[in-house]
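4.2 Preliminary Data

To establish feasibility before requesting continued support, the project team ran the inverse folding procedure on a target of 340 residues. The structure was first converted into the token representation described in Section 3, and no sequence information of any kind was made available to the design step. The complete token record follows.
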């Protein structure tokens, strides 16, 4: 299972975080400047950089390009717009993208099942779970707030665990603070059942257990690592090969993985540490072999205790189209025939 790096939400957190604020956006801030007669004529972005040094040059250029700056009442033609003494500039500050992080947005995602206390979502490939740097909108969280407005009263819109953007499959979302606390504690106690199907490079001849702590890679910040880890945390993955095959001349194995812990990129890192990176997981040494264009990992099964009655709830989700296409393209090896 994969989690967003450096998140305040981790499965060994003692308590859920405090609720995020969902206040109305503040009114836009408008600045007006009249250029003095002593001003030396120059391009607009350079003038604004002098007038508003608290903002970066790139941000100011973005405001100009998105028509947030007027010169003498007319929208500026661009960053190179020539400014002269006596010109009047009107700058309307654009909200930073993070200000929209907790806004409801129509985002498409399938809901497998729901109750008054929880939802089970089948997260599509390419959907980011939680807003963060580079993805301040269009996330699952935004979609949850749009479809279930009462989730604005629950921390992180009820999200208790996460999947990577390019990992598909099942997630449980809490609909109340009490249910969220209960589910987080189940994750802490390692009683939530999570099974994944993965396609990995090479032939994995036998199953096993990987017990290697994972932390941020000391050399490559976007990677996680078991041997160059910064502040590593315990991580345990169980894996079992299901069948062997060949894809465009490359040996591959379908592997079932079961998690005890939930660290960032855990399955990806642990399988790579065995010399069997996920197919198309180029960050960890896997090759992209058509039709596999993203890491071949899917959260197929999920089991948890219902916070309302302690009954086990179990769900499964079929493979997404791209992973099924990869499966269908593999020449599977009939080992029983080879033994005859």
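Position-by-position output of the design step:
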């Amino acid at each position: 299972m994969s989690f967003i790096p450096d998140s305040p939400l981790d499965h060994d957190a003692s308590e859920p975080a405090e609720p995020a604020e969902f206040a109305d956006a503040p009114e836009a801030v408008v600045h007006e400047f009249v250029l003095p007669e002593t001003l030396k004529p120059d391009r607009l972005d350079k003038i604004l950089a002098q007038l508003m040094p608290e903002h970066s040059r790139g941000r100011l250029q973005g405001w100009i390009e998105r028509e947030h700056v007027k010169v003498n009442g007319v929208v500026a033609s661009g960053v190179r717009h020539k400014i002269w003494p006596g010109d009047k500039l009107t700058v309307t500050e654009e909200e930073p993208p993070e200000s929209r992080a907790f806004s409801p947005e129509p985002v498409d995602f399938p809901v497998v099942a729901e109750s008054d206390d929880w939802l089970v979502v089948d997260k599509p490939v390419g959907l980011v779970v939680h807003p963060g740097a580079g993805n301040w909108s269009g996330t699952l969280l935004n979609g949850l707030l749009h479809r279930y407005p009462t989730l604005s009263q629950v921390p992180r819109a009820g999200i208790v665990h996460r999947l990577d953007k390019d990992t598909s499959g099942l997630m449980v979302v809490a609909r109340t603070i009490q249910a969220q606390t209960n589910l987080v504690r189940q994750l802490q106690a390692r009683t939530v059942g999570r099974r994944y199907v993965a396609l990995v490079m090479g032939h994995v001849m036998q199953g096993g257990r990987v017990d290697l702590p994972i932390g941020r890679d000391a050399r490559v910040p976007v990677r996680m690592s078991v041997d160059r880890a910064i502040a590593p945390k315990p991580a345990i993955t169980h894996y079992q090969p299901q069948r062997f095959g060949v894809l465009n001349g490359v040996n591959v194995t379908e592997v079932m993985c079961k998690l005890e812990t939930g660290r960032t990129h855990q399955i990806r890192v642990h399988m790579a540490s065995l010399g069997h990176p996920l197919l198309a997981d180029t960050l960890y040494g896997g090759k992209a072999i058509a039709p596999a264009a993203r890491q071949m990992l899917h959260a197929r099964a999920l089991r948890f205790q219902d916070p309302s009655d302690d009954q086990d709830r179990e769900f499964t989700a079929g493979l997404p189209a791209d992973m099924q296409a990869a499966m269908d393209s593999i020449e599977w090896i009939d080992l029983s025939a080879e033994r005859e």
